[in-house]
Fold:
Amino acid sequence: MSEIPSPLDNLPKPSMVNNFDSVEEILDSLLEDYSSSGYYPQIYRPSLQATYYALYILDAIGRIATIDHSKVLGFIMSHYDSNSKIFMDDYSRRYLDIDPSKPITHILPC
Structure:
């Protein structure tokens, strides 16, 4: 039986030079993913949280200008619910559906 490859296998290996080079390699890989998909994917599916962190890091290192702002805005706004006036994605729905009377394991994927 063959193993299913992990999405983490595609990430660049950390540089032996310094941490900045490692971050640069990882960000280049993420930007390549964004260019082909239009969003910043997580291991399972794109999320608002992953997009927030990616944008925060890109801004912090001065590379925010490398993205297509209209695509990012479109992705973010596609998760806006005008009835409830909040942003929602699959991950936030999962956590809002938590029943505190049940053990935490009921929300974990099988």
Q: What stands out?
A: Residues 15-107 form one domain. The chain is about 45% helix and 5% strand.
